[in-house]
């Protein structure tokens, strides 16, 4: 039995208290939700982050520069037009200046490397050249001895030189002593000298020693048409394709001096 003071308090409780508790046990109606709309903690449908903890998407990872740039761009978009220009102009100038500095450093190192290779005395080209090692000897002076295969001559073009239309003459060099055959770029000729009979002076017969620069294979752009070797049409110096067509190694030498 409860003490008298407690019994009196329970008995004197209004009936509306029990009705309110009964309503809270049932599913809350729209009126109840509207009643507690001003205070989320009093809403019986309220769920706190303690009951539904958040899920971590990434842990132990740093955001990349893309997210940082995106955040900065979002902040810039909130500015008006005048303030955007004040922010974007210094950023753009700094980016272009940094790019120019790195490009200047790259070009300086490249020119220094090529000048060092060009000034060195020419090396005899090995009997067999590994194509993967040509990159380390790009623009290196070399010389080779053999016989030009004019019957396998290939013209690449049209190529413009000093405003005149013409072609690059590529002739395989059959080397002596069982060495591999290589491709020699002999230079540019005008279109009127396409036929060999019109340039007999430039045809070298017999044993010849060629000095030139060892070069990497050329890179084709998107606007150059594909070669058609079966028709004798070469628009781009595809070293690998031309080597297969002539039975040579994919070794490209740009002739700078020829000696009989």
Order of helices and strands: HHHHHEEEEEEHE
Give a count of the beta strands, DSSP E runs of length 2 or more.
7
Main sheet overview: 5 strands, mixed, barrel
For the biggest β-sheet, the strand order reads: 2-4-5-7-6
Compute the average pLDDT.
Answer: 76
Radius of gyration: 41 Å
Oligomer: single chain
Distance between the termini: 131 Å
**Number of DSSP helical runs:** 6
Which residues form runs of ≥5 with pLDDT under 50? Answer: 1-27
Class by alpha and beta content: alpha+beta
Shape category: elongated
Percent in helix: 25-40%
Percentage of residues in DSSP E strands: 15-25%
Concise structural overview:
This protein is an alpha+beta fold and 260 residues long. It contains 6 helices and 7 strands.
Describe the protein's topology.
Blueprint: H1 4-11, H2 15-25, H3 30-35, H4 65-77, H5 81-119, E1 123-124, E2 140-148, E3 154-161, E4 164-175, E5 182-190, E6 207-215, H6 239-246, E7 252-259
Key attributes of the depicted protein:
260 residues; alpha+beta; 33% helix; 22% strand; elongated; disordered N terminus
Walk me through this protein's architecture.
This protein is an alpha+beta fold. The chain is built from six helices and seven strands, in the order αααααββββββαβ. The chain has helices at 4-11, 15-25, 30-35, 65-77, 81-119, 239-246; strands at 123-124, 140-148, 154-161, 164-175, 182-190, 207-215, 252-259. A five-stranded mixed beta barrel has the order 2-4-5-7-6.
């Amino acid at each position: 039995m409860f003490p008298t003071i407690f019994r009196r308090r329970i008995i004197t409780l209004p009936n509306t208290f029990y009705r309110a508790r009964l309503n809270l046990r049932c599913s809350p109606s729209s009126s109840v939700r509207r009643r507690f709309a001003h205070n989320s903690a009093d809403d019986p449908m309220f769920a706190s982050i303690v009951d539904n903890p958040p899920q971590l998407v990434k842990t132990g990872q740093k955001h990349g520069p893309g997210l940082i740039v995106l955040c900065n761009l979002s902040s810039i978009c909130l500015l008006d037009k005048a303030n955007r220009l004040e922010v974007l102009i210094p950023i753009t100038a700094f980016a272009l200046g940094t790019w120019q500095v790195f490009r200047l450093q790259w070009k300086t190192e490249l020119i220094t490397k090529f000048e060092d290779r060009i000034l060195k005395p020419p090396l005899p080209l090995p009997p067999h050249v590994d194509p993967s090692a040509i990159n380390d000897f790009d623009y290196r002076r070399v010389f080779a001895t053999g016989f030009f295969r004019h019957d396998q001559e290939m013209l690449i073009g049209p190529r413009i030189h000093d405003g005149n239309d013409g072609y690059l003459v590529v002739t395989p060099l059959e080397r002596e002593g069982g060495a591999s055959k290589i491709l020699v770029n002999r230079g540019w000729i005008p279109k009127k000298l396409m036929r060999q009979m019109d340039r007999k002076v430039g045809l070298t017969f017999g044993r010849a020693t060629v000095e030139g620069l060892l070069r990497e294979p050329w890179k084709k752009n998107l606007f150059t048409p594909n070669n058609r070797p079966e028709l004798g049409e070469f628009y781009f110096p595809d070293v690998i394709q031309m080597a297969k067509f002539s039975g040579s190694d994919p070794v490209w030498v740009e002739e700078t001096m020829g000696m009989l």
